[in-house]
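Practice problem: Decarboxylase
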Amino acid sequence: MKAVAGYAPYGWRAKIGLIIPSTNTINEVEFCRLAPRGVTIHTARATSTGEFSEAYFQRLREAGMHGADDLATAEVDVIAYGCTSGSIVQPLDEIVSGIGTRAGVPAIATAGAVIAALRALGISRVAVATPYVDFINEAERKFLALHRFEVTSLHGLGLGGTEAERRAIGRVPPEHVYRMARQVDRPEAQAIFISCTNLATLDVIAAIETDLGKPVVTSNQACFWNCLRLAGIPDRIEGYGRLLSECTNPIAGSPHA
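Answer key — structure tokens:
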């Protein structure tokens, strides 16, 4: 056993741990599609039941901590808490520090990764498209403002309030995501942010950037980019937006500072 203790036949560059709500069927798929050779994805699920409320997000956060315990046994190199709304409604710093402490590896959460991505692209004014209900949208607007981003417009689909609606987010066609991006775009917006880790975006990021002439940041794209850079992997990944193809610098310190 000692001779092979450091071996990782497929994740020899990095093993990324991912904690997602149990209703999420998109995040791990998109992470796996983006992963370069030598990088593997290892997922834990946090039970996601009941209606949206502060208590729901607290339960999800607590379940995520148990996911961190499980992922630690897989010897992952970095862990991402893959829930945008959950890392906005609950204290971001506490989620990240809690996961990192329990797993003993660097940790991030989607909301913090989005902030790091927007900063890496030099963005200060952003148009936001989400699948969320109003109270999540308002929390997201305040979160972005707290981190000194001006939200030029915001549109939500009104989904996610119930367990069934959270599953339905994963069925929204990418083509509709494209139309959402066009709907929220404004001349003063420097970028489009498409929020939610259960929203399928990979197949339309390039088309949105081409047609609107500005960068696109999505929850999963930003979170995966942050995981790679935190793991010390500078690969340029083409076809999924300027963030992954141009922003190769390592991320120093906390991505949500």
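Discussion: The longest helix spans residues 54-72. Students who identified this feature from the tokens alone can consider the problem solved.
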